Amino acid sequence: MLDIHSQYLCPELQAVLWCVKIKFQEALSYRLPDIFLSSLNWDKLLYYAQVHALTPLVHEVIASQYQSVVPINILKALAERRRVIAYHNLQCTHDLLLLHKEFRKQNIRVISYKGPLLAMSVYGNLSLREFGDLDLLIDKRDIKKTVDIIAAKDYRITSRYGWEITFSKEDKKELDLHYSLSPWTFPVSLFFDYLWEHAHRVRIADEEIVTFCPEHNLMVLCVQVSKDAWEDRLTLNKLCDIAALLSISHQQFNWSYILHEAALCRLSRILYFGLALTKAFLNIKLPALIFKELREQSWIEKSVLQTVYRVAAIKNGKKNGFFYRMQLHFFLQESFLGKASQAGMLLTRLKWERKKIYEKTPYSKN
Q1: Is residue 363 one of the residues assigned to a domain?
Q2: Which of 116, 106, 168 is nearest to 138 (CA)?
Q3: Which domain of life does the UniProt lineage start with (predicted)?
Q4: Cα dihedral sign, 176-220-125-26
C-alpha cells in the first residue's frame, strides 16, 4: 500500500499527521519538514488537531521541536487545550477506578478498553491521548447489576441501543456500557468469554484493570476504525491508536497468530483494512507477512483511497455517501450475518427513499 495522504490532504492536516508520525517514528524526529516552513493557516491546524482529537500529540511535538516556527498564540492555545484534556482524563480515570472497585466487590467481570487504558498502557501518559468517555465491555447476563452500580455513581442513562447503553453525568463525563463490540448492522464475532479468557491486567494507581491482550486490542481497534469509516465519521486519532500500539508491541506480536485469530473470528478483512488505512495516513512499518496479505487483497486499495478522500473532504465535499458505505460494508463483512445485515440496511434505505418521494408528490395527502 502507498503512503498516499499528501495527494489528498491540505497542508494543515499534513502537519498534524507529521506530528503523529514523528512521535512514533524516532528516525524522523530531527528532520524539520518543509510543511512547517510554508505559509500554514495556523487556526486551521488548531481546528484539525481538535476535530481529530490529536491536540495533545500535536502540542507534545511542536512544543519540543518546532517552537521557533510556530506563533506564540498557537503554542498557548495548544497548551491550554491540552491542560483541559488532561484534567478531563484525570477525572474520568478517577471514576473508572471507583467503578472497578465496586465491580470487583460484586464479582462482575468487566473489560475496560480505549480511554485511560490506551493512554497508560500504549501512550505511556494519561494526558497524551484525548478521550471523551469510558468504554466498558460486560457479559450480557450482568447488565442489570452493572447498570445499578454505574447509576449509583451519579451516571444517568441517556440512550439505549441493541449493543450498548450510554450514560452521562452532570459534569459532562460520559460512559458507554457495551455488551457487544458493534451494532447488528456491523456484526463482529468477538465474544466476551473469549476475550476475557485472553485478557491482560493493567495497573492504574492501586487498581488492576482488566483489558484486552495486545493481539485482541489490535483487532478491536481495527473494528473501531472500520465501523467509523463505514459510518462516515472516522477521525484520525483512531489510526493513531493503531500506530501507537504497533510502535510498542511490534516485536512482541505473533503475526501468524493474529492472522489465525482474525480468520477464526471472521475479521481478516477488517484487520487488513484497519492496517492498510493506518499505513496510508501514517506510513507505519508492517511485517512482510502482513504487507504481502495487503497486496493480495484487490479490494483494499480502492476502499482505502475512497476513505482517505472522505476523511480529507477538501475538494468536492462528501458525495454519494450511501453507496460508499454499502460498498465498504460489502467488502468488510465475511459472515452470513454481516451480508444479511447489509440487505436489511438496503431495504430500510429503499423504504426511506420511497417515503421521501411519496411526501413530495402533490397528491400524497389524498
Answers
A1: no
A2: 106
A3: Bacteria
A4: negative
CATH of the domain at 124: 3.30.460.40
Note whether residue 249 is domain-resident. Answer: yes
Q: 3-class DSSP state for residue 113?
A: strand
Would residue 365 count as lying in a domain?
no
pLDDT tens digits, one per residue of 4-41: 656 678 889 999 999 998 888 765 655 667 777 778 99
112 contact partners, CB below 8 Å, separation of at least 6:
96, 100, 134, 135, 136, 137, 209, 210, 211
Number of domains in the chain: 1
Supply the angle between the helices 321-332 and 214-230 in degrees, to the nearest 10.
150
Q: How many CA atoms lie within 13 A of 96 on its CB side?
A: 33
Residue 336 CA to residue 267 CA, distance in Å, equals 13
Q: Is residue 258 part of a domain?
A: yes
Instruction: Please count the CA atoms within 13 angstroms of the CA of 279 that sit on its side-chain side.
Output: 19
Give residue for cell 498502557: 121
In this structure, the strands spanning 207-211 and 200-204 are: antiparallel
Q: What angle do CA 235, 241, 243 make, to 5 degrees?
A: 110
Beta bridge partners of 204: 207
CA 290 to chain centre: 21
User: Which pTM was predicted?
Assistant: 0.89
Positive or negative, the CA dihedral 191, 192, 198, 202 is positive
Q: What pLDDT, in 10s, does the model give residues 144-190?
A: 999 999 999 999 999 999 899 999 999 889 999 999 998 878 888 89
Residue 342: strand, helix, or coil: helix
Q: Which range of residues forms the domain containing residue 314?
A: 5-358
